[in-house]
Structure prediction request, 277 residues.
Amino acid sequence: MSEPTGPVRRRRIAGESAPAALTPKQPAPRRTSAKKAPLKKSAPPRRTAVATTSAPVKKTAPVKKTVPVKKTVPASQPASATADGRERSGPSRADLRWLVPAVLATAAVLVLGVLLAVRGFSDFRDDGSGVEKAQGEATSAAATAAESIFSYRFDQLDQYVSDSQALMTPTFAKKFGEIGPVLDEIAPQNKVQVKAVTRSAAPIDCGEECSTTKADVLIFVDMVRLVGGSDETTVFPNRIKVSMVKGSDGWLVGDIVTLSNSPSLPGENPQTDEKGK
Prediction:
């Protein structure tokens, strides 16, 4: 008998499972080394030949020098030049000699016009003839004279008439003397005392007939009257126009005209009375 060459199989014992079949081992794959492709050497850059010869330069024609043209300036406005010969655009010193005074004169005229406008038309009325001054003097004299002429006492009538006539022109003084007898009949019997107080006075516009020797004055005067032994006074507010005339002795009363319910002359009763408080 020939001897078996393969593996010996033994018998299985009761209850033993069959052995698992053996699977053949697969050989591991071999690693292949990848060969690198040989690098190609790049060709060296080509050098461009630089031309050493330059193009021929063309000769330019010579530049002709231009002669500067002189500007003609009118004789009335000469052009001023600086030290380097260039002209100057601003005004010259000769122009400033008349320009500055002209500007100052214009400014002075404007200021004077504003002042005259503020002061008003009354400053022009005088016109250098002294009318405004004369009217002021006449107004002051008329206000004082009105208080004296319309103030009197029953026991001093003779002195009152004499003092009043001294403030009047001869013509008006003669007319005023005629009221003496009237006062002698009324004032002593009733023991009348009158005190005149000037409230306001102003010259009346003379228009085109202004004069330095004549003026009309509007006066507001209150006549405070006391009768008998009573302590209660009665006030008569009056408006009168006093015509003033300037003579050698100063301003005198030439006429008196009443403008409301007031007596034309002392001694006459007004139409309405107003009692003082």
User: Anything to note?
Assistant: Residues 80 and 93 are 9 Å apart (CA to CA). The chain has a mean pLDDT of 74. The first strand starts at residue 80 and ends at 81. Helices lie at 93-119, 122-126, 131-149, 157-165, 170-176, 180-190.
